[in-house]
Write a structure and sequence with these properties.
about 350 residues; alpha/beta; D-Maltodextrin-Binding Protein, domain 2; Alpha-Beta Plaits; 3 domains; about 25% strand; globular; Chor_mutase/pphenate_deHydtase
């Protein structure tokens, strides 16, 4: 049977080897051209990473493909190809909520590729500081979860700092209960980020009602603690389990099976239009009747679709709020530009956080 199997596989494998030889030659040709592009960018002091351009390349290839590769496969393959080309031009660094093994690190690699250099940070505040101070060209921060809603600290820091949003990624969140030996026996505490504890509260109440719950800075930090103390269980993903040598006691314990977290990529460089964009902004209005209607009316009149509307206390007066708004389109698109110009005249405060390619 083995001889017959090998005889049928050999010609197919030979064809794959021949195609691989062609692919590596073409990839090296592509890399050489990417290096030439890098020299031109260097002369004009242009940014190495252009998320809108990469989005356009991937979208074009997805449209060209007739299978059997699906769109997500093409996305994954070409992100790594372009990430490797970027690394030839310049080593780029992205700050993320650490330590290693967090969902933020996973989001960073899925967005930028494996060639990005990660800078783990102890808090979301530190991610923003690293980008502002130039310790990292980019930062990766969670902004909202499909179960628990907005990440308030990220919203506050977007208001307080001068960084821009340059991209987004919606990451499926699969929580596991992790322990050293793969059992709950002897476990007295379950540790995780506060959001993860909230996303698993129904499961914990049913299956571990007597175990103390403790919020820590990140799920990866909880995994690190569990690796050092057999009385601690951690809620974290597969990456953290591998990183810290833990066993999966229970898999997929999130209350919502479709649980997702939206991450945004922050930096100092504005992003050009890709043709499939989103613009994020913060506005405030005077505390008077009809103020919010007057705020939103220009968007409707210019045909600009609003995809998110979130309010946060302004903390500078009684019952005053900032509104965080996402709209479809780039700030340079004519309808969006016209709506934002009117909005700037009517709002007491307007800050555009950035225009960037929408997550597909």
């Amino acid at each position: 049977m083995d001889d017959e199997l090998n005889s049928q596989l050999k010609p197919l494998r030979d064809r794959i080897d021949a195609i691989d030889a062609q692919l590596i030659a073409l990839l090296n040709q592509r890399a050489a051209i990417a290096l030439a592009v890098g020299e031109v960018k260097k002369h004009f002091n242009a940014p190495v990473f252009r998320p809108e351009r990469e989005q356009q390349v991937i979208a074009r290839l997805q449209d060209m493909s007739q299978g059997p590769l699906a769109g997500e496969h093409i996305d994954a393959i070409w992100r790594e190809i372009m990430a490797a080309s970027r690394a030839l031009e310049k080593n780029l660094t992205a700050a993320y909520l650490g330590p290693a093994g967090t969902y933020s690190e996973q989001a960073m690699h899925e967005y930028f590729g494996q060639s990005i250099e990660g800078l783990p940070c102890s808090s979301i505040d530190e991610v923003f500081r690293s980008v502002e101070a130039g310790g990292a060209e980019f930062g990766v921060v969670p902004i909202e979860n499909s179960t628990e809603g907005a990440v308030s600290r990220t919203l506050d820091l977007l208001l307080q700092t001068q960084v821009l949003i340059g991209g987004e990624l919606a990451l499926p969140i699969h929580h596991n209960l992790l322990t050293l030996d793969g059992a709950l026996t002897g476990v007295t505490r379950v540790c995780a980020h506060a959001q993860a504890l909230a996303q698993c509260q129904r499961w914990l109440s049913t299956h571990a009602p007597h175990v103390e719950r403790q919020a820590v800075s990140s799920n990866a930090e909880a995994a690190r603690m569990a690796a050092e103390d057999p009385t601690i269980a951690a809620i974290a993903g597969d990456r953290a389990a591998t990183q810290y040598g833990l066993q999966v006691t229970y898999a997929l314990i999130q209350d919502d099976p479709h649980n997702r977290t939206r991450f945004v990529m922050i930096g100092k460089q504005p992003t050009g239009a890709s043709g499939y964009d989103k613009t994020s902004l913060i506005v405030s209005v005077a505390n008077e009747p009809g103020a919010v209607f007057k705020l939103l009316e220009p968007l409707a009149r210019h045909g600009v679709s609003m995809t998110r509307f979130e309010s946060r206390p302004a903390r500078v007066g009684t019952w005053e709020y900032y509104f965080y708004i996402d709209v479809e389109g780039h700030r340079d698109d004519a309808p969006v530009a016209a709506a934002l110009a009117e909005l700037g005249q009517k709002a007491a405060f307007l800050k555009i956080l950035g225009s960037y390619p929408r997550a597909r």
